[in-house]
Design a protein that fits this description.
53 residues; mainly alpha; 2 helices; elongated
Length: 53
């Protein structure tokens, strides 16, 4: 598409890179969450605060 638009190879490589990035992000955001599920747990769940008296 980049070559057809401007006639330059550099434009087609940039266009290809941007389209691949957008495609990968859309797969990660919209497709993978329906197939992959994981739980993130951060330990410790309670915080202990030490105070000086």
């Amino acid at each position: 598409m980049g070559i057809a638009e401007s006639g330059k190879l550099r434009s087609s490589v940039k266009h290809l890179a941007i389209n691949n990035l957008i495609g990968l992000l859309s797969i990660v955001i919209f497709v993978l969450p329906s197939f992959v599920s994981f739980n993130l747990q951060v330990f410790p769940t309670t915080a202990y605060v030490y105070t000086l008296r």
